[in-house]
Amino acid sequence: KHSASLERTVEPLEYYRRFLKENCRPDGRELGEFRTTTVNVGSIGTADGSSLVKLGNTTVICGIKAEFGAPPTDAPDKGYVVPNVDLSPLCSWKFRSGPPGEEAQVASQFIADVIENSQIIQKEDLCISSGKLAWVLYCDLICLNHDGNILDACTFALLAALKNVQLPEVTINEETALAEVNLKKKSYLNIRTHPVATSFAVFDDTLLIVDPTEEEEHLATGTLTVVMDEEGRLCCLHKPGGSGLTGAKLQDCMSRAVTRHKEVKKLMDEVFKSMKPK
Amino acid sequence: MCSEAMEGAMQTESKIRADSGTDPGPRGPGCSLRHFACEQNLLSRPDGSASFLQGDTSVLAGVYGPAEVKVSKEIFNKATLEVILRPKTGLPGVAEKSRERLIRNTCEAVVLGALHPRTSITVVLQVISDAGSLLACCLNAACMALVDAGVPMRALFCGITCALDSDGTLMLDPTAKQEKEARAVLTFALDSVERKLLMSTTKGLYSDTELQQCLAAAQTASTHVFRFYRESLQRRYSKS
């Protein structure tokens, strides 16, 4: 046992290969198995919508605040959804405090793309008064613990938090032209699609493993993230370089993404059903 | 220092339907890339440079390396690759950072970094004009610049953009207008040896079958781009 832990530090790749030969991983998972996923919604009282997602040890919390803003001039009947992923030194030794590093910026851009591509909410639903007033949803995704696969956790946290958001009714007073907010009358957002992300890591140019931990991400030769909605449509195929993949390997990834979508949907339905009597 | 403007259409016009950038015209299924051109070794300071034109989209790339690396960034057993993408106007933002990461990871997959440990290879890309398919043009310019700098690579790579419009018609190398009207825009980077997918980034909604169709079309189109690379380099080295 002493030599195993020594090998893990000194020759991590060889250590890993020994497990991969047996079609499993050091934490006991199979190559296509996800870590235990748990989700908790509505835990932040001060936010309009919130969620906490744990994917094994990776923990991401999402808080959504709705504020007023003027709609963009080129789209006067649309609101804004502004995501921001915060990777602080709290979650991993890799990050320093200060302006967002590259990984945080890439993750923020990825979440913005998923929101845009999947049309998870219709931006027109956020408009209160065309050209004058619209809702701006600030989605803050904070990683509390980074153990790999941050993109899947963030996408799931965002989806759960958006489902949890309740916006108060706003009417524009005709005489004063001011907005009147009725906090007693709140309604949920109309979530049109449920995008779910599935990430893979490529090992030695050939082997694909699902839901990589941080150690696995570091040893991998490439990564791939597939975001799929409930109808099997792809919102995003994010493969930032790394080893090449053939069309057939991509096909395998798609089928795994479909099953993952079912797993996540089931989990979310359970959570929201248990919350209904409020 | 011979700089050669290589008109892609001249050599391969019979195979690629030349299209002027502003007026798309009817495009058939399969290969219908815009007219492209490449010029190498046009900057004197970087170790390698290239300018790649696709229709009206133009990107200038410069490569410095293998060069000295900061101790904080050095990797003990391979070269540290860095990509800087500067937009045509404004300061680089989060979208540029995201694209830089995509281009960097694609280059890292092909560059033989292990031959130059503890060095840095920097690729600087400047967008001259953007008329659609920008990321693909950046990838092509980066590849040509890396070749011009003499950086050892295990394969060449090229960028191909596919657009799917609302009735599912596939368009390769879309113009800015076509990209805006399309339902989905997919950009792939393919390697020259086995046409495997190195990088992919997509915008919009599409189905799994459409993805496979686009990938197949991109693989066919990449043959033309690689042939263009080869002829461009042959012409350059045969004269000198």
Topology:
The complex is a heterodimer of chains A (278) and B (240).
Chain A: H1 2-10, H2 12-21, E1 37-41, E2 49-55, E3 58-69, E4 80-86, H3 102-118, E5 127-129, E6 133-145, H4 150-164, E7 166-172, E8 179-188, E9 196-203, E10 207-210, H5 214-219, E11 222-228, E12 234-238, H6 247-275
Chain B: E1 5-7, H1 8-12, E2 36-40, E3 48-54, E4 57-67, E5 80-86, H2 94-110, E6 120-129, H3 134-149, E7 157-164, E8 170-172, H4 176-181, E9 184-191, E10 197-204, H5 208-239
Parallel strand pairs in B: 5-6
Antiparallel strand pairs in B: 1-2, 2-3, 3-4, 4-6, 7-8, 7-9, 9-10
Describe this structure in words.
Chain A: Belongs to the RNase PH family. The complex is a heterodimer of chains A (278) and B (240). In chain A, 31% of the residues lie in helices and 32% in strands. By secondary structure, chain A is α+β, with helices and mostly antiparallel strands. In chain A, a hairpin with a 6-residue loop joins strand 7 and strand 8. Chain B is an alpha+beta fold. Chain B is built from 5 helices and 10 strands, in the order E-H-E-E-E-E-H-E-H-E-E-H-E-E-H. Chain B has a 6-stranded mixed sheet. In chain B, strands 8-7-9-10 form a 4-stranded antiparallel sheet, sandwiched between helices. In chain B, strand 5, helix 2 and strand 6 form a beta-alpha-beta unit. Chain B is globular and about 50 Å long.
